[in-house]
Batch of 4 targets.
Target 1
Amino acid sequence: MRLVIARCAVDYSGRLGAHLDPARRLVLVKADGSVLIHADGGSYKPLNWMTPPCELVELEPEPAETEAGVVMIWQVSQLKTDDRLRIQIFEVFHDLETELGTEPGLVKDGVESHLQALLAEQVELVGPGLRLIRREYATAIGPIDLLLRDPSGGTVAVEVKRRGEIDGVEQLTRYVDLLKRDPTLAPVRGVLAAQAIKPQAQVLAQDRGLDCVILDYDAMRGMDDPSLRLF
């Protein structure tokens, strides 16, 4: 990646035209070929950009541009369209190029596997008197996140989601219908446990005879004590 802080003006031509008057800006040139022009504001969104595949070439400024103080021209051309960025650079303050290496990707906090592991240790959140039989209980149509035993000897199948939607209800319905065929597990009921559950999913779950449980991820991690809340 190359990071250039420069006083520059930018002209975009393509499906529409756009112009940025001279000012100090950050120009990012990424390894994938994309070029982004940022101001010191506006959060993450660039003022203008060019997505790959594109080509960046450095040109000599025209005499009139040189007279106006332009020291170099960057022309960025989109290889699949006629879109172009013409960056007039008047002064360079910093120019840094470094190899970042392979990006391992974002790992989100609170993903379903974390919720599942926490809920397996706190099954009382699903209901009183429950105990864990197994995590990732294997079935012919896929693993059930948590299989619990209730005090009366029945079985509780729990599907854990970050966001409960209709697809999750349908998935849980299939699991419960399958488990009910096993006399060693019957009676069986299902619970959809999630950080948030859409109203449509709640209505469908109720219609299917399934329960819904909202999970407070921070409280489950011990980072938030509900007893200390005012509201």
Target 2
Amino acid sequence: MMDVATLTALLREAEEHHGAYEATAPPHHWSDWYAGYIVARQHGRSDLQAVADATLVVEGAPR
């Protein structure tokens, strides 16, 4: 279980990275990208690896 402070920090981190992705992204719902990002970070992936993982979630690549 994640505490509120940790989730808040991850959501803000995801928000920062999603802004850059949003400029060139295909149509998608932000929550799909954020969820992919947060799950990746929970599994120990770096922020840049989490960006790649979240992008794969949105763009339909196998996970």
Target 3
Amino acid sequence: MPSKNEQLQTLKDSGVVAVIRSDRSDELVQVVQAISEGGIRAIEITMTTPGALDVIKTCVAKFKTSVLIGAGTILDTETARVAILAGAEYLVAPTLNPAVIELCRRYNKIVIPGALTPTEILTAWECGADLVKVFPATTMGPRYFRDVKGPLPQIDLIPTGGVNLENAGDFIRAGASAIAVGSNLIDKQAVARGAWQVIRDTARKYVEAVHNARQDKA
């Protein structure tokens, strides 16, 4: 099994975290399959999805050698613990809860809390966050990342909320370590039709957008 540091490097190297939210869980394994075939190596199942723990268990068993399966919308330590026991390899929260960070560190799991202001971002990092999710990212825009990274270059940031193909590269060029994409990646109509090639192609486009933006920075 890869170490936590190796998993963290995989997540950052991949550059894209797919965020899956759904009112139905029966199609999520196929969604994960399509996303992974598109080249995304980190996929987050939000705890707002019905049967989220079972989906996490199934996906970890099926994709463990090729994809990091995480749990999202972690609001408290109880939810964090059951997600870890279900097999989640990283945990993501929309807010900053130091107790959740502490529990993840106890279990040696990657933890990505949410923050917005420089004070919140620094506090999350000081508490032991591996990366910090800036949410909602599009409220501030890519320029905000450049401004924050100036005094806080040591903190890995991930924009979440409104990231799309048009601005994904801008966030990377502004200093984001990776991007997180949800509804703009997963076309609900394509899922309903079983048009998995659409999901694969869109995933591939996001991976390429991150790769090209990183080449621009090099």
Target 4
Amino acid sequence: MQRFFDYGEQLFSKKIELIQKFDLTYFFILQYALPIISMIDLILSLILAKSPCYWSISITAFTLSGIAVWYGSSCKSEGPISQNLNFMMMLASLVYLSHWFLVIPWVTIKMSIFPKKILWKKTIHTGV
């Protein structure tokens, strides 16, 4: 999240290619905007006693994540052999992914109230 606060303006510059802007925009939407929108939608639906509006988008994101987990685990890789994915393992991975819907809104609120500018410095490498 900090990198979007620090480098967000570069998304609108001509320094990066269109496909990179597309990738970063959708990464931002799925990883950061969707959890915040869903949390606000849930809170407002509870306050106003109405059904949430954006949960269909969240369910679609979870479905696509489940498909990605299934596909990724079924592909051959050069690394260690992974277990065959069963329904419980996919469900466990989706439960794990769901924590993002709590963590991201919390971190966003925290970073908005207590902004912290991180200064990145290049690591000096020495040796052979």
